[in-house]
Design brief:
The protein has helices at 14-23, 37-42, 71-85, and strands at residues 2-8, 30-34, 47-51, 54-58, 61-68, 94-100. The chain is of the alpha+beta class and 110 residues long.
Length: 110
């Protein structure tokens, strides 16, 4: 089993990524609203405020975490992400990381 973490810079891509991952058989993705040190330094942290009488939310990043069964699936997930957001080595796209898990519990074993 492996853990994937994706820090997504543009939340407009979220649904497309979730749909692509579901097409690969990935489920159980946890989505966390997040903000990084760069935004903190710029004071662009997520906040709620009123604008014209309507509540508007300034958005930071979204961090997606999910457990997958093997390394080929990690590579498929990465490919799907980059087909949607572009090359992750480019600025303002995101960060993708994966690592092996030595212990899992509560994850269905197929």
């Amino acid at each position: 089993m492996f853990m994937i973490m994706l820090v997504l810079d543009d939340s407009d891509h979220l649904d497309a990524i979730l749909e692509a991952w579901a097409g690969l058989g990935v489920s159980g993705v946890t989505i966390i609203e997040s903000s990084g040190m760069h935004r903190r330094k710029l004071k662009h942290i997520p906040m709620r405020y009123l604008y014209g009488g309507k509540a508007v939310e300034e958005c930071g990043n979204l961090t997606l975490i999910v457990i997958v069964k093997n390394e080929p699936l990690i590579r498929q997930c990465l490919k799907a992400v980059e087909e949607i957001v572009g090359d992750l080595n480019q600025p303002n796209t995101g960060v993708f990381a994966a690592w092996p898990l030595t212990l899992t519990k509560g994850i269905p074993q197929e």
